[in-house]
Amino acid sequence: MRIDKYLANMNIGSRKDIHQLIKEKLVIVNGKIVKTPKQQVEETDKVCVDGNEVAYQKYHYFLLNKPKGVLSATEDRSQKTVISLLDPQDRYQGIVPVGRLDKDTTGLLLLTNDGQLNHELLAPNKHVAKVYRAQIAGVADEETAKTFASGMMLGDVTKLKPAKLKILKQDRENATSEIEFEISEGKYHQIKRMFGAVGMKVTALDRLSMGNLHLPSDLKRGKYVELSLDEIKNIK
Ligand code: URA
């Protein structure tokens, strides 16, 4: 690939910045000064910019604790997106959220520029388990759990896969519940619609895990950590 693309992929700067660095003879490949942005480089070449080696890492994986009020999208005209929560140097080309959490949902959201992984995690036949904690307006009980476990219909045509409901707290007097819920699909507003179908309302929703990736308890809302390939490869 061209050296300017390589450096842009590594977020060294804009194409314009990179052309300037090349002009200033600050880009060195295998010990030789790069003379043109068109020069081809391999991922195995030793590339230095202004004396610092640039290690080539094609894919990046960030685990974000999504706060409320932020869209799971890459850009939006008027609203803040999850990409804006990444430090500018981490906004690699092609970074997208893996699936979506609603604007008012919080918790674990993976962001990556690894299109293959993204595709695999979202493919309908992959069934990656996602666990949420939720506050419910309504009394979720064993009957509710049975309904969800049986693979209910959502509307007239959508048959859902079985979902696991764990009741954490039940307040019959105030008609509220706290639950943990595991689903293996990601249909639009799925959990809110499932509870809506049994006459209840989700008042707060927080994703705790996806596959074997868990939200670290010390990761504050709006903050994120970079994961290594090793940490990510067992997720499926
Ligand atoms: N189900 C929902 O209803 N909303 C989410 O954000 C995720 C799952």
Provide a concise account of the structure shown:
The chain is of the alpha+beta class. 19% of the residues lie in helices and 29% in strands.
Q: How would you describe this structure to a colleague?
A:
Strand 9 and strand 10 (158-159) form a beta hairpin. This protein is α+β, with helices and mostly antiparallel strands and 236 residues long. The chain contains six helices and 15 strands. It folds into three domains: 3-53, RNA-binding S4 domain (Structural Genomics Hypothetical 15.5 Kd Protein In mrcA-pckA Intergenic Region, Chain A); 61-124 and 213-235, 2-Layer Sandwich (Alpha-Beta Plaits), CATH 3.30.70; 129-210, Alpha-L RNA-binding motif (Alpha-Beta Plaits). The strands form three sheets. Strands 5, 6, 7, 8, 11, 12, 13, 14 and 15 form a nine-stranded mixed β-sheet that branches. A four-stranded antiparallel β-sheet has the order 2-1-3-4, with no helix packed on it. The chain starts with a helix and ends with a helix. The mean pLDDT is 94. The longest helix is centred in the first third of the chain and has 9 residues, at 15-23. It is elongated, with a radius of gyration of 22 Å.
List the helices and strands and how they pair.
Elements: H1 3-9, H2 15-23, E1 27-29, E2 32-33, E3 47-49, E4 52-53, E5 61-66, E6 96-97, E7 106-112, H3 115-122, E8 130-137, H4 142-149, E9 153-154, E10 158-159, E11 164-171, E12 176-183, H5 190-197, E13 201-210, E14 213-214, E15 224-227, H6 229-233
Parallel strand pairs: 7-13
Antiparallel strand pairs: 1-2, 1-3, 3-4, 5-7, 5-15, 6-7, 8-12, 8-13, 9-10, 11-12, 13-14
Bound molecules: uracil.
Uracil binds at residues 101-102, 105, 189-192, 205.
